[in-house]
Every structure is written in C-alpha cells, then in structure tokens.
Amino acid sequence: MLIGRQWISNHIPHQGNMLLLDYVERWDDEQILCVASSHRSASNPLRVGGRLGVVCGVEYAAQAMAVHDALVRVQGGDEPHSAGAGYIASVRELRTEAMRLDDIEGDLAVSATKLAAYSSLLYSFVISTDRRVLAKGRVTIFVDSDAL
C-alpha cells in the first residue's frame, strides 16, 4: 500500500512547496523508501538561481526520516508528533555523484535506514535515480520535545 502525499502532509511539519516527497513506496521498522518528483519543479523553494544543488538532497533525506519516524510511532500507537520537532544536527560522510538535482529527468528514490534512535535520530541515506546514486551519507536529527 502506497502512502501518499496527503498522509505525509498530515504527519510532518512540511507543507505546500516545502513538502518535497510524493509518496512512500515501502517501509518497515528500520528503513523507508520514498519517491519524489519535486526536484524538477521550478517552484521548488530550495532552488537558488534556478538551480537545485545536489546537497539539497539532504533535506529530501531528512523528510524521509521524519516520515519514517511518524510511521513507526503511528504503528506503535503513539502520536506521530509526540517526539517533538526535529532539526538537522549533523551531516556526516556526505558523498555526491552529481552537481545538481534539477536536471535529473527521472524521479528520485530517497531511502533512509535508521541506525539509532534515542534522544536524537541517526539515519544513513541514499538518493538515487534509475539505479544511479546521486548522494549518500548519514544525518543526525535532534528532537526537541519542548518545541511543540
């Protein structure tokens, strides 16, 4: 069962053009695979000078991580926002194989794997298209439970 944009919009803070993901293709307790086409949109709010740099893939990955956390919480019977607001605390081992995302014709596959979840979340991620890796790395998300 695909989880669509409306469910995502209802469970993470990103709205309107800043909601970058189209749907969740599959997920389990440890990983998620999302699909996005917003990298091709001229109204993508992350574009600078009409271009979308590959490092913006980190935001795509962070949104996939937020969706994964919400799905795990809902499955566990918790409120999806009970963890609080999330902020990117660090990006490690970032590797890029492209300069831009806006010139990629195919949809983006945004996968994330949970490595740890305590007072913060640690995930590895891969952004790819048609089996070509565009970016990969690890992201730590600081969760501020007082922000809500």
Principal-axes geometry comes out as: globular
**Which architecture name does CATH use?**
Roll
Level-1 CATH class name: Alpha Beta
Mean pLDDT: 91
Please tally the β strands and state the result: 7
Question: What composes the largest sheet?
Answer: 7 strands, antiparallel
Q: Structural class of the helices, strands and pairings? A: alpha+beta
Quaternary structure annotation: single chain
Biggest sheet strand line-up: 1-2-3-5-6-7-4
Q: Alpha-carbon distance between the termini?
A: 30 Å
State the order of secondary-structure elements, H for helix, E for strand.
Answer: EHEEHEEEE
Rg over C-alpha atoms, rounded to the nearest angstrom: 14 Å
Tally of alpha and pi helices: 2
Helical fraction equals 10-25%
- Identify low-pLDDT runs: none
CATH structural fold name: Thiol Ester Dehydrase, Chain A
- CATH homologous superfamily identity: Hotdog Thioesterase
Proportion of residues in β-strands: 35-45%
Overall tally of domains: 1
What does this structure look like?
The chain has a 7-stranded antiparallel sheet with strand order 1-2-3-5-6-7-4. It is 18% helix and 39% strand. The chain has a single domain (3-144), classed as Thiol Ester Dehydrase, Chain A (Roll). The chain contains 2 helices and 7 strands, in the order E-H-E-E-H-E-E-E-E. The chain is an alpha+beta fold and 148 residues long.
